[in-house]
């Protein structure tokens, strides 16, 4: 295996679920060069490619379907914030989560659609049809959260979305300050 292919495979093992653009930035390689080597790697049993939510993600072959989907969602800062909030505070209502994370309800619902679809969060309804959000697999989710290091570009996109939400919401949910 070439040195370039080895470094791509190593980066994918180090950061499972990394998306294509981040991979090219992390390795400082030309997109065409990365594409060529990824095609070779995905042709073997070493790397799995999966497109979710507008991005192509890459994983070591030993990651299962649930882990791949979960990592794709967890690469988004707001989705991570929602899960961390739920893991920290336990099951709660969507309104409480939106306020706690500092996002608009519409943004919460957009992320919840993906979190529910990937079996990270469940929406439980009581006899009055009130919704409570519950983390589906708390232990496994916490472990996967430890694997995700968002890129600066990903953080900027998520924070820009929060800023726009805050402006559209009349400033009721100002963007969260960076610690």
TrEMBL record:
Keywords: DNA-binding. Residues 2-71 form the HVO-0163 N-terminal HTH domain. One of its GO terms (molecular function) is DNA binding. The keyword Ribonucleoprotein does not apply. InterPro entries: ArsR-like_HTH, HTH_HVO_0163_N, WH-like_DNA-bd_sf, WH_DNA-bd_sf. The keyword tRNA processing does not apply. Pfam families: HTH_20 (PF12840), HTH_HVO_0163_N (PF24266). It comes from the Archaea. PANTHER family: HTH ARSR-TYPE DOMAIN-CONTAINING PROTEIN (PTHR36216:SF1), TRANSCRIPTIONAL REGULATOR, TRMB (PTHR36216). This is Winged helix-turn-helix DNA-binding.
